[in-house]
Fold this sequence. Notes:
By secondary structure, the protein is mainly α. It folds into 2 domains: 2-182, no CATH class; 191-350, Lysozyme (Orthogonal Bundle), CATH 1.10.530. The protein is built from 16 helices and 2 strands. It has a two-stranded antiparallel sheet with strand order 1-2. Strand 1 (264-266) and strand 2 (271-273) form a beta hairpin. Helix 1 (2-29) runs parallel beside helix 6 (99-121), helix 5 packs antiparallel against helix 6 (99-121) and helix 10 crosses helix 15 (321-337). Mean pLDDT is 77; it is low at 25-52 and 345-352.
Amino acid sequence: xxxxxxxxxxxxxxxxxxxxxxxxxxxxxxxxxxxxxxxxxxxxxxxxxxxxxxxxxxxxxxxxxxxxxxxxxxxxxxxxxxxxxxxxxxxxxxxxxxxxxxxxxxxxxxxxxxxxxxxxxxxxxxxxxxxxxxxxxxxxxxxxxxxxxxxxxxxxxxxxxxxxxxxxxxxxxxxxxxxxxxxxxxxxxxxxxxxxxxxxxxxxxxxxxxxxxxxxxxxxxxxxxxxxxxxxxxxxxxxxxxxxxxxxxxxxxxxxxxxxxxxxxxxxxxxxxxxxxxxxxxxxxxxxxxxxxxxxxxxxxxxxxxxxxxxxxxxxxxxxxxxxxxxxxxxxxxxxxxxxxxxxxxxxxxxx
Length: 352
């Protein structure tokens, strides 16, 4: 029984890891060739495996506005189901076994190569933080399922051998029929998908702008006047940083800075600091970094975006080409739907 239970636990942990590795492999195939037409679909898993780099707005919205909720659901639901299956198998075929022990073993087999190792070797503090969170949550699930197995009989989660093969063949036939039906009846929707992606992007930018404006308009205006900072660029940067660093992560970063006196990027504007910063304080520092950029407002306000010039302005903030392209994308949406950000072009009627 011990050998059967131990092998089952190891297999369960390996299956969890294989699940994520297969998805990671499928995503890596897209990086070795031309960018697919449906980039927002093809890169669905990109945010899940690179949550600490910067994403475009389309990448962000491909996971929905509840990106971080979907991220943890994606990371925790497969382990939960597999651990429940393991608990059912042990309860049914190895009665009297310490189910909790083998659930913890399975969780360890899964998280040690994927999350625990990266806690030590990841480059960024925020990356270490998310891998730590992933590991702890997997162990919480394992312990929870183990306690549940002690209180209730979970053997019903374990399939019978004959039923397993019957379901396997049934699933295969259903999958083939569904695939054939989808291929035959679904016409290409490239134009519609591209328009939907652009609409989702614009809606997100407008909503995010409204939230930031309602909370920090006075601070932003004062900082712009003090440092001669470009209003469109500053708002676009704040929207982009807010998208890539949700509030819970910013609070965690501030806590790490406070406790360990590390220099991290903190606050809404994600500026470097060795002490905690409020969102308002980080906005002022961001305006200082972008000091003197207001000269570009007239050009951007008329709809012209010189990407090379924008990269030069943002180089002290973030030198990545992706960063400048994404900021320009957000600015184009602001120009259409938040004209008050461009008073130099649209006239004083929009100025605050």
